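Figure S7 source data.
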Amino acid sequence: MFNRRVINFNAGPAALPDSVLQRAHQEFFNWQGQGISILETAHRSDAFYQLTLQSKQLIRELLFVSNDYDILFAPSSTRAHFAFIPLNLLGDCTCFDYANTGYWSKHAISQAQKYAKVNVVTDGEQTHYTTIPAYQDWHINKNAAYLHYTDNETIDGLEFSYIPESPYAPLVADMTSSILSKPLDINKFGVIYAGAQKNLGIAGISLIIIRKDLLSRSNDKIPDVFNYQTIAKAESLYNTPAVFAWYITKLILEWVKEQGGIDYFYEQSLSKSQCLYQLIDQDDFYQNKINLSYRSRMNVVFDLENPELEARFIDEAHKKGFVGIKGHKAKGGLRISLYNAINLEQTQQFANFMNEFKQRYG
Ligand SMILES: *Cc1c(COP(=O)(O)O)cnc(C)c1O
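Tokens for the predicted pyridoxal-5'-phosphate complex:
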């Protein structure tokens, strides 16, 4: 039992800034002087409508999204959109291009395959997802509906350091675990989508930034609640949205802006991840096998040279108040997730613990 807030390195749902939790707590019983909480607020009310407009505006400002794009707050989490992206974007095409760079790419591919042929344009499995194969060697297709990639592989600890492109088709990116952490040229994308529970808030909704001309690809066989054109026309209020999740995202966006926007968080993410990678690289006690150019700024994965020490490492870290550090069950090892809500000082505290552990057992 802890009687204080621990440092939460969970991969998702993940840490939220204290100030956001405090604000949600303060205004919980009486939101916007309505005499009722946000949980009880009608999604058709003016107060909630204003919240939807403000959050879309904040996304536009923070990520420099032009009016060529619509901003959707769609139901459910990323895995749902692994299916609804291909359904909405297939249009008259007969296949999709996907880069396979890790666990989440693989799952995205498995869903797209239900609806049309998937061309795996590059396959990182051959190198055990330790690197991203050179872009020049990808096999891009002329007739694909889009080219899909996973910007940050949350489980494998691998991140794109560039934006790929297809000369033929729009680019679609799963940015669930890297959105709001680096500047992006949005104009290079057809669609960016992200579940909210990592850098954007809590579980229940997904952000979709979609180039407006792509909306016409959605056909009426797609369930209306997941039809991007229907969602866009209804300003993301077609069905009753997860009002609380949307509200938390709005608080997060305001907090990101207050702190200094995307540039600030990009700098922070470099400092935080470097702090851990430098320590890992000092010797073989801790090991990370990812190609240096593609190491994730968001999810630092590592193993201990002596795997017998792993349980002890996790246990001692937990006693010191560091939680959520165990790697995903599909991969094992350790994983430290450094989303925006984790600051440099907290990261340094963990690095100190890692260093001290090494001194004792190395
Ligand atoms: C977490 C994550 C997902 C899966 O999200 P769900 O909430 O389980 O739908 C998909 N892609 C990436 C990159 C993720 O980090």
